[in-house]
Amino acid sequence: MFIVFHDPSLFISVKAFLPSFRVLKMSQAREEIVRMVSVIREI
Predict the structure, then answer these.
(1) Which residues of 3-40 are buried (b: 16+ CB within 10 A; e: fewer)?
(2) Would you tell me how many other CB atoms lie within 10 Å of the CB of residue 41?
């Protein structure tokens, strides 16, 4: 899948957004781990 950017400012905004998206994914993964650990502790 290829995305062609006609507007360079759009490309820059996407590049600027990517690190925050990665942090968001990491925080979601961390929440899942915390949830799993709390479930394991209940058992």
Answers:
(1) eeeeeeeeeeeeeeeeeeeeeeeeeeeeeeeeeeeeee
(2) 7
pLDDT in tens, 2-39: 656 566 666 667 677 777 778 878 889 899 999 999 98
Q: What is the pLDDT of residue 31?
A: 92
- Helix (H) or strand (E) holding 31, with range, is helix 8-42
* Assigned token pair, 14: 């996407």
Residue 38 is given by DSSP the state H
Give the distance, in angstroms, between the CA of residue 4 and the centroid of all CA atoms in the same chain. Answer: 22
